[in-house]
Amino acid sequence: MLKSQGFWLKTAGLFLLRSGRSTAALSLMVVSAVAMLVFLSALDVGVNDTMIRSSTGLFAGHISAAGLPATLAPGVLAVTGVKGVARRVPAAGMLSGNGQFSSVVLFGIDPEAERSTSAFWKKTLAGSFLSPGSRGLYISRQLADALRASTGSVLSFSAGGMAHAKNFTVEGIYETGIDPLDRGIAFCSLAAHPEPQQPWTAAVFLHDGVDPADVIARYRSALAEGEAFKSWSELMPDLRQLIDLNYFSMSLVMVLVFGVVSLGIACAFVIFIMKHVREYGIMKAMGVTPAEMMRLIVMEIMLMNCAASLAGIACGVTAVLLVGSTGGIDLTAFTSYNRYFAVSGVIYPRLTPFSLCSPPALALAFSLAAALWPAVLVARKKAADILRLG
Fold first, then answer.
1. Does residue 232 fall inside a structural domain?
2. Is the separation of the CB atoms in 362 and 265 below 8 Å?
3. How many Å is the Cα radius of gyration of the chain?
4. Gap between the Cα atoms of 123 and 59, Å rounded
5. Which tens digit of pLDDT belongs to each residue from 195-253?
6. Is this prediction's pTM over 0.90?
7. 133 and 265 housed in the same domain
8. pLDDT tens, 302-317?
9. Element (H or E) spanning 74, and its range?
10. 365 and 322: one domain?
11. Fewest Cβ atoms nearer than 10 Å: which of 46, 110, 184, 378?
């Protein structure tokens, strides 16, 4: 059986080699389709990466938790895979100045930890971000407008009665474009916070490629507060849904592309078969069965497809590496008002098993389907009819 299989494989290869120009033309269709879709699917993964990186890196982190006890040190959360932990102590109260009042949540933060993990401080419009020993205030432009404040203005924060008000000098004003971050929030250093020992919220930032679920599982097995930790996909279901939609859309594009390509392959292969119809007729006259004839034609399609897919993968991977090494694709001009690209609009295509395997697998499946028509055409005709056609 192995000898018979090898014989038909060799015969299929010889048929393809004898028709070099036809084989090259057919292969070019598959090479271009596979290369294009490897690159596009890697680009789709890169878009998803950028949306996740921007949405989590701006402020929230990949993992969040609220109500953590003051006795729990941020260092306890720095397990393997964690890039950094931002500790934020909230205090609800009233911020006043220039005869204006606004209810806010004042977060006490570690400025150095925020600089090394989050990116919201990069959205500074005026003044500067807080320094480690700062006694000042960092507020949004929206809040500054409501309080008629600017850098250098003195504002009073009160978590209770006005008798307990604490004065702050505005050091910086920011704008992220994300409404929850730009409305009713102010920041000060932990050293200046009026209630630094209150329960705190954590924003855990992970290294690229680390699964939040694995880190949360470790927290839940080691900490009594483990159930408080939630991943970005739980807290941002809209982003999770958008990423799933991107994958579905890319899969649909692949199917449509190879659907069109397979029609071209089927039509071109019929011409290829008809060009060599006399050889097939002679083989049938020599006793080759219809099943063996179909096997031969299917093997020809598979050999051509496998070689073309490998070449297409090589071209696609080369394009991905080239774009990645030259700084990615900057889409900032098209994403500047999109909250999912608030940190960066630069896309870096990334190869995954999905982007590498899906295009060649679909190419093979559609090519085999395309081979059925010419295979059945030859297998069903009698040798005399085929020779008469030839």
1. no
2. no
3. 32
4. 11
5. 888 899 999 999 988 999 999 999 999 998 888 999 999 998 988 999 999 888 888 88
6. no
7. no
8. 788 788 889 999 999 9
9. none
10. yes
11. 184
What's the pLDDT tens digit per position in 350-387?
998 888 888 888 878 877 776 676 677 666 666 566 55
Angle, helices 237-275/290-325, rounded to nearest 10 degrees: 130
Q: Is residue 226 part of a domain?
A: no
Could you tell me the residue range of the domain that residue 36 belongs to? 2-55+239-389
The answer to whether residues 244 and 385 belong to one domain is yes
| 189 Cβ neighbours under 8 A, 6+ residues apart | 108, 109, 110, 111, 130, 131, 132, 133, 134, 135
Q: Which residues pair with 167 in a beta bridge?
A: 156
Counted domains in the chain = 2
**Alpha-carbon gap, residue 229 to 216, rounded angstroms:** 6
The Cα diameter of the chain in Å comes to: 107
C-alpha closest to that of 89 among 181, 201, 4, 8: 201
Spatial separation of the C-alpha atoms in residues 19 and 12, rounded to whole Å: 11
Last residue of a domain, one of 170, 188, 209: 209
Same domain, 355 and 295: yes
Task: Mark whether 18 and 117 lie in a shared domain.
Answer: no
CB distance 106 to 195 below 8 Å: no
Q: Are residues 160 and 72 in the same domain?
A: yes
CA distance 60 to 79: 18
